[in-house]
Amino acid sequence: MILSVSDLAIHIGAARPVDGVSLEIAAGECYALLGESGCGKSMTALGLMRLLPAGARVVSGVVNFEGTDLLAQPETAMRKVRGGGIGMIFQVPATSLNPVLTVGRQIVEALQLHAGLQGGAARRRAAELLDQVGIPDPVRRLDEYPFQLSGGLRQRVMIAIALAGEPRLLIADEPTTALDVTIQAQVLDLLDDLRRKQGMALLLITHDLGVVARMADRVGVMYAGQLVEEAPRAQFFSQPAHPYSVRLFAALPDMRRRGGNLATIPGSVPAADTRHEGCRFVERCSEAMAECRTAPPPWREVDASQRVRCFLPDAAAPVALKLGAGETASQTALKPLLEVSDLQMHFPIRRGILQRAVGAVRAVDGMSLHLMPGRTLALVGESGCGKTTAGKAMLQLLRPTAGSVLLDGVELTTRSASQLRPLRAKMQMVFQDPFASLNPRLRIGEIIAEGIQALGTGAASGNGVVKQRVAVLLEQVGLRPEMVSRYPHEFSGGQRQRIAIARALAVNPQLLICDEPTSALDVSVQAQILNLLSDLQRELKLAYLFITHNIAVVDYLAHDVAVMYLGRVVERGSADEVLRHARHPYTQALLAAVPRIDGAGKTVVKLSGDMPSPANPPVGCHFHPRCPLADEACRRDYPVETLFGATHAVRCLKA
Amino acid sequence: MMGLAVQPMLLWSDVLLFVMIAVIVALLIWARRQDALRSAWGRVAKNRVAMAAATVLAVFVLIGLLDSLHYRARLDDRAGTAAQYAVEVHSALDALLSQLRLRGEKTYSAPLATHLFSREALENSEQREFPRLKHGGAHLGTDLAAHENDIALRLLLGAAGGLALWLLLLAALHRRYGVVFKPALKVGAGETASGAVLYTLLAIFTLFGIAVALGGGYHVFGTDKVGQDVLYLSLKSIRTGLLIGTLTTLIMLPLAVLLGILAGYVGGWVDDIIQYLYTTLSSIPGVLLIAAAVLMMQVVIDTHPEWFATTAERADARLLALCLILGMTSWTGVARLLRGETLKLRELEFVQAAQSFGVGRFAIMRRHILPNLMHIVLIALVMDFSGLVLAEAVLSYVGVGVDPTTISFGTMINTARMELAREPMVWWSLVAAFGFMFALVLAANLFADAVRDAFDPRSSA
After folding, report:
1. Nearest by CB to A431, which of B349, B368, B372?
2. What percent of chain A has a predicted confidence (pLDDT) above 70?
3. What are phi and psi for residue A411, nearest 5 degrees?
4. Bridge partner residues of A10 (DSSP)
5. DSSP secondary structure string, A591-639?
6. Where are the beta strands (DSSP E) in B173-289?
7. Does position B81 have pLDDT exceeding 80, yes or no?
8. Using CB atoms, which residue from B349, B356, B461 is nearest to A428?
9. Hey, are the CB atoms on B355 and A397 less than 8 Å from each other?
10. Which of A334, A455, A463, B402 has minimal Cβ neighbours within 10 Å of its Cβ?
11. Cα distance between residue A549 and residue A536, in whole Å
């Protein structure tokens, strides 16, 4: 065992984010620490490295790394261990590199400290490392600054720095959460490859079951500061034993559950300062027994390799898969609710004293789509492809540069702000970050009533009617009406997103633009919100424009899918056509890059490189620099739309 | 017809000061009902340093308020004439300190001295001697040997008096709230750092007792060039400092908030104009701008003597003008800060959600931007206060500050500077001004620090 942790406990004041964690990692092994936000996974990792934030302290436990107890070492000895024995990479590559130092300087710094290399030798080794992590043209990259690199390349540089000390253990804290799926696939491949070649152990911290399935040898599930289950990967995915693990799987959206409801875990993770008498999961567990409330469950060995902290004598029963009804929405309506044609949103780049526009960032560059009433259209694409901008331009929150947006047959782009106001009741938006989308200084009641008051949908109605409407809305989204006088900070992320949905529904819209409404939420909470959205659609016949990068959510929720690349729609059609009979190589690559929990990695197209800048798109097909099928024609002309069947349209010369 | 014994007078600065106090009290009552604000102020109340500083500030404010109750004394009536009132304007503080105010000496005398500071040719004598003070130590008569014992006795008596006063207060609190005297000294149910308040009060009461005991017979901080008691001057300076600190922020804040939010939220040419305005303003040397404006104001005041019935009113007008000028020149920093924060806020999703409801610009600024800037406004307010008190001292020292007849820390320092060069040095004016100003500014700064910590969302975990 290269690392063995026993009974590690970390306290921050009254809170106990880590409360008795024991785990062991063998040399060369990949151990995945899985858990929702706030369960203490990152705090565990920081505790191992003794890099805890101010106020947090280790109150008990032994961290044995290669035979020495790290918690007993003096700080000077720890400095050798950090980077030398244990390397660490963090979640956000944008902030883990120093922006004012070149990449080379930052790698060389690590080399000087841990490998004792100086000058030319260090520089040569730095270039080798960059080459090793798959950065093309490493010698030139050494002299570049972090802002010149894309997110994926920055994360590779972080990995190179972590590798400089030739660590025997690498701790990766959500290494791909901030990256797009295609880039995530590249980085995961790289980590896996390095681990195998160098025999380095990997402690992978993640909330993503797909990543676990792709990478891990063994899995530890954390809940409320404790490990609740430990198992080898295959066994964990085939027969999870803890009720929490079982429900995590059931909460994942996918195609088979279309039209039905996802299994949810009621409630949310208990606060870190809760004192637990019995099992930590008891409040959310449907199989809780009397003894679960009185005593903490001990470890139970399922077999030699799998153990679980639960009183149930056998593995928790699998949650019955509620198969969906499949296709739900009627297609009877003939007139589209939303019709976007050739929408353009350009942001001028201004230079010089006179601020003359010297170019433009073409965030949205001629996109067309239509959405029928009562249906869901998913707008899929990697970050930076312009999908959020497109959503805002459709709502006229940003005024489009060109193109037309017809809502129920009414042109929006030519209307002034005051002319738009009566139309705003028909279309609303649910934002990505539930923590930023509610004004912290207003009460919930005021937040929800704002739209009613601003648009006068309850015009003739007095205060009492508005209050009644707010109460109805709160019940509709699954909150209690007496919560009106609370402030947003008293709610969890999932509850806040419900409030944001209630606010949008307050004006009886027909179209709801949902901008990644679940990406900031945990899996179990995501399922609650997705269920709510599909219930509301059935009840109120809402149309959704669902902006997301999460293919599984698309598969569960969407009737139609449009795939965006660099400001344009490259493929659109029904969900079945796009997701199962994809014709555009980009769509195929995107789908292949999604880590699947059955572990079956399709090896079709692996994308190399990153999306080009929308300020300077490549000539010809935008996708050709990354496309394995590209030829001379692709480099010359932008492909026109080719129709396959009535609804399936693809912009590719090779399709 | 019998008039009042005094004619109450409201100077403009008094009106503003009382309005401001009323507004602050109203705000406090309002804040008590806001959960977020109450919890933040609750954090301030738990902070011992903050509460000690607040106590000191409260004492300063009390002195300032007493000094703002102005009146004109009634002159002796002559039969058949209407009541006549004195030209001089005094305040309640002057009345309380009449002993200090009226017992002037001829010129400099050291703290607690019995003789003047410099030798003079005495009548009936060839020699130059240190003349006896008219009031300082007069009760000793010829028994000068008892001087030191007398001082020690008064020190003890004063301290004992202060302690007794404090114990009385404790007893009163005990009867009212049932407080038990414990080291923790908890008053009421809350975890307010009331111990800090009480111990600070103990220190203040003790000092007060000593000052009263010694001041009865001596000039505690000596006398200045024209024989005025320096303790009296220092106490009178407090109102000037407080006024400059608070009125200026009152003038500055609306400008800064309005322009900062407009520049940040509206953007475009509005932003360009406001930015141009504040970059221009802040690139002119501040003292130069203020000096020019003050001199202009001085000319206006001098050419319209009919506007002012008393010298006090004239001095007051000049003080207000100084506040106005300081306010007009010092809004730029806060405006810039608020503009930056607004730029950040307007991109937040709750603002966009409001936009998607078609909520108007000004409604968004009022409902969504301003409440989220209030913590910065509050921090700027308390931080700027101490800066402005110091600025007054500097400006008065340079000669472009308050009217020479207004007693302020700046004028005290200004008159004392020449005497620093003489040997032996006349140090007490300077030290007294420095000590009072230091206590005021330090208390304000400590309080501001605690307020910032409590309101800064990043520091509250």
Report:
1. B349
2. 95
3. -75, 130
4. A18, A58
5. HHHS--TT-----S----S-PPPTTSPPSSSTTGGG-TT--HHHHH-PP
6. none
7. no
8. B356
9. yes
10. A334
11. 22
